[in-house]
Amino acid sequence: MTHPHLTVETDGPVRTLTLANPGRRNAQTPSLWRALAEQAAAVPDDVRVVVIRGEGPSFSAGIDTAMFTPAGVDGEESMVELASGGPESIQAGIERFQAGFTGWQRCHAVVVAQVHGHAIGAGFQLALAADLRVAATDASFAMRETSLGLVPDLGGTKPLVDLVGYARALELCATGRAVSGQEALAMGLVNAAVPLDELDRATAELVGRLVEAPRDAVRALKPLLRSAVDADHATQTRREREAQTGLLLSMLASFRR
């Protein structure tokens, strides 16, 4: 799916998705979420790293709040219309929206969010949907849904709690306070925080290291480590054995060629 506010560029094993609505600080809409879901499901086999970034002064200032008004956004699903359909309609709609975020967990490539400026609400949750995050020290992460009388609902609550713990996640979501890139690094939200003028370089260096690592090992590693978040020890050690078996058999087959 093509989208006017999403550009896709592929350079060998690296694909870059750029949120491209800088005049609205890359505000998000349901059509963008559909496009992101389709992109997550259609990453070519030879692409090893996906970078998600934002054009202009911000990564993403979150959902386009005009969607909560009766007028809505032209061509987009209105939250007012969604709510008028009752509980089943609301939950089905949210599940569709979530696919633009949760789909990246199942993507075989390692997903890196390059974050600068605002990463608010849905913007914060899109950064959390990535496997790794590189932020500018000027980045401003904030969950502002509670200030609207709502909760984060785009798949961001679990990775947030996994990264910073329940108490810190509750504080961030309940108060909506902004977290700088430097504080995000200190609390484990991001993997690196650098000055804005070094952000492209820092992201490129991380991507380069990921591409240099053995492809099959990294591809097996991503689901293995993701499963470790919830699995008990016996289950996880079994999954380690299974993953290693496949890699060793593949290695042996290459020796025999």
TrEMBL record:
The keyword Lipid metabolism applies. It comes from the Bacteria. The keyword Protein transport does not apply. GO terms for biological process: fatty acid beta-oxidation. PROSITE patterns: ENOYL_COA_HYDRATASE. GO terms for molecular function: lyase activity. InterPro entries: ClpP/crotonase-like_dom_sf, Enoyl-CoA_hyd/isom_CS, Enoyl-CoA_hydra/iso. SUPFAM superfamilies: ClpP/crotonase. CDD domains: crotonase-like. Keywords: Lipid metabolism, Lyase. Gene3D superfamilies: 2-enoyl-CoA Hydratase, Chain A, domain 1. Pfam families: ECH_1 (PF00378). Belongs to the enoyl-CoA hydratase/isomerase family. This is Enoyl-CoA hydratase. It comes from Intrasporangium oryzae NRRL B-24470.
